[in-house]
Structure formats: C-alpha cells, structure tokens
Amino acid sequence: MNQFPIVLSAPSGGGKTTVTKLLMQRRADLGYSVSCTTRPPRPGEVDGVDYLFVTEKQFIEHRERGDFAEWAVVHGKFYGTLKSAIATVLEGGKHVMMDIDVQGAAQFAAIWPGAVLIFMLPPSVEVLLGRLQERNTEDGSTLLTRLKSAHAELQVVSRYHYVLVNDDLETAVARVSSIIDAEEVKRERIRALDSQLSGLIATLDLEIKRHS
Ligand code: ADP
Ligand code: 5GP
Question: What is the pLDDT of residues 175-191, one digit of tens each?
C-alpha cells in the first residue's frame, strides 16, 4: 500500500476547507479524515461529513479509549482525528486528507513519519481578516481567538514539508495537487521498486549478451 496521509494546515480562514473540498471533488484518489470536535456546527455543516460533532464527555471517552491518532484544544474546543477514520480511507486505497492544526500535525508526524505536511499561508493579514469576516462564522471574541492562534501557528511553519500561499484559489488547489503527484513518485514510496529494477537489469543483461 503506498497511500499516505496529507496534512493540510493554515490559520483559520486560510482556506483549508475550501481547498480540501475542491481537491476531493477533483481527485478520486483522495478520501477525507472526518475529525471529531466539541465545537458547534456552523450553518450548512453536516454531522459525519464535515465533522463528527460530539459532546465533551464523548470526546473524553474516545481519548481515554485511545481512539485518537492525535488530538488538540484549538480555539478553546477539542478536536481530534480518530485512528479509525484514517484506517478506513487508507484501506479503501486512497490517500487521506487531514485538515488539522499545528499541534495535531506535530503529534501525527511523530507517529506517522511518511505523512506529507503542507502549510498554506494567507497572502496577507488583511486578506485573511477579510476572508474570515466574509465567511461570517465568528463573533468578535472568536475572531480575536483565531487571530491569536494564527500568530502562534506562523511560528511553527518550519515543521512542514511544503509551504504555499493561498492567493488565487485555483493556483493553490493546483499546487497541492502537484505536491500529491510528486509524493506519489517519491522513490521511498514506490512499491516493489527493488524487484522492478532487478527485473529490468536482468533483461538488460540478456539483451547485452545477445547484442555483443
Ligand atoms: P479554513 O478552513 O482554513 O478556516 P475556509 O476554507 O473556510 O478556511 O476559507 C475562509 C473563507 O475564505 C471562505 O469564505 C472561503 O470561501 C474564502 N477563501 C478561501 N480561499 C480563498 C481564495 N483563494 N480566494 C478567495 N477566497 C477564499
Ligand atoms: P474550524 O473550527 O475552523 O473547522 O477548525 C479550527 C481548527 O481546528 C483548524 O485549524 C483545523 O485545522 C483544526 N482541526 C480540525 N480538525 C482537527 C483535528 O482532528 N485535530 C486537530 N488537531 N485539529 C483539527
């Protein structure tokens, strides 16, 4: 199996959800890891699709059972990736897209060194603020919390393998897609490369003998 997890992080409003949804529509080889959260659903969000919306008690039960591959408190709410969510996607033969924060990304990278870590930067703080306000899902205090988190998140971008700016949406989606394409042909990920090479070399030996 050479499917791998792809972790996409960005400050809140950075475009993770938008980019991930477009990628999922366009690439049949991707599945989404639906996270658990204790934050309430936003208008239009569907339980089991966008998140598994759980109570704090349910979250803690999962945590105590060791169900999470990683978990963190983000903007004052619990968020976590269920090990089963990752396994389901990978066993279905797809790469797994994870939209998780920087704390979760660090935990996950420690247990899954083959994961691809991508960070998306906003073109500017003004644009980030504008997008958050346009999305209109945060009240004043939540907005402030998200800006403070963004400040902290930008300090740890060096942990990521790839960094891109989400300026033009189509360009950002294309960049993430190209990263996935490149990772698929990374030498270490190619299944049975040694036997493939031995086969080619053995045939070449025969041909060299035949032609000499
Ligand atoms: P995140 O999931 O990282 O919090 P979202 O995907 O919800 O961010 O994006 C925040 C807002 O910015 C949304 O209203 C989205 O439509 C908008 N947005 C995201 N990327 C772009 C882009 N490249 N250009 C313009 N608007 C964007
Ligand atoms: P939002 O509430 O805007 O959907 O997400 C807030 C933040 O929580 C984002 O940075 C998002 O990436 C992060 N997040 C979502 N799911 C998870 C998860 O399962 N684990 C962790 N650690 N962070 C998550």
Answer: 999 999 999 999 999 98
Q: Whose CA is nearest to atom 19 of ligand 2?
A: 80
Distance CA 148, CA 179 (A): 29
Give the residue, 87 or 133, on which the prediction is more confident: 87
* Domain carrying residue 141: 5-32+95-211
- pLDDT for 1 equals 56
* pLDDT score, position 13: 92
Ligand 2, closest atom to CA 72?
22
- Interval between CA 178 and ligand 2 midpoint (Å): 24
Alpha-carbon gap, residue 101 to 96, rounded angstroms: 16
Domain count, the chain: 1
Sort strands 35-37 and 162-165 into parallel, antiparallel or unpaired.
unpaired
97 contacts 20 by C-beta, under 8 angstroms: yes
